[in-house]
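INFO batch 0412 | record 1 of 1 | parsing
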Amino acid sequence: MRNFILGIVVAFVLAFVGVFFYFDLGLAPVATADKPMPMEAYFAKKALHARISRETPKRDVSGFTTADLVTGANVYQADCAFCHGLPNGTKSAAANGMFPAPPQLFTPDGMVTDDPAGLTYWKVKNGIRLTGMPGFRASLSEQQMWDVAALLARADKLPPEATSALKPAVVDPPDPPAANPSASSPAVTAPEWKDARQISPAELAKKLSGPAAGRPVVLQVGFKVLYEGGHVPGAIFAGPASTAEGAARLKTEAGKIARDKEVVIYCGCCPWEKCPNVHPAYDELRKMGFSRLVVLLIPQDFAHDWIGAGFPVQRGR
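INFO prediction complete | emitting tokens
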């Protein structure tokens, strides 16, 4: 009996040591492209379902009005569409690179119309750890979260007003290249979008670490989920500029800044020249009279070109 108990103790010690070195030596899958650990999905789903089944509130959202659904659509457009997609839209580059893959909530395979609205509400409020899904309890009101839950509960039969609010933002096509571009001349500040002055991540990080008088104001004009997940230290959330609500927020924040102050704008969802938010933000700030407007050069996305490069990051609101 004594040897049996000793064997169990030794087995537990060896198992603990094995697990420790598995993680300590970097053998555990941590990249989104890695294969999951054995039974990782099983245990993750088991824990999630147990927690949700215990805490999911019950509420009938069938009586939510068209106005409620439009509010939910506006919130979804600003905070959720970047990962979870829009009706008849394409999956974003960021969503393609996430693990686990975020469900596309307006596709037949991704809709949650059969789920209780309280289940969707719980996920919106609390988020899901280690999935990229943030919790919005600190940034959205109870009613806004229920409006989103009601919207997704009717994703297959929305009124036209809500569907209209979910249309992708229209971005103007890029200007054609100049007839005789000068390869040796640097970009200059000018009203034209493609002539926007640019700054590299390394240059911006250096400026922000320098004397306070020389630091530019940084505006994050993209999606709130990106801002809360990680942003340039000191950056002000002023977006998403591709939506009416975000454009209004941009004007409000920009109205507090001197027009001759250097202002750097970025979104970080994708390459800057393809971004649905940087272009309209740049145009709006030019109209407001900002003379030292600069675009942060992001060739791929913020996670790769800023966070992945080791520059300082501030998280949260």
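INFO post-check: Residues 124 and 135 are 6 Å apart (CA to CA).
INFO record closed
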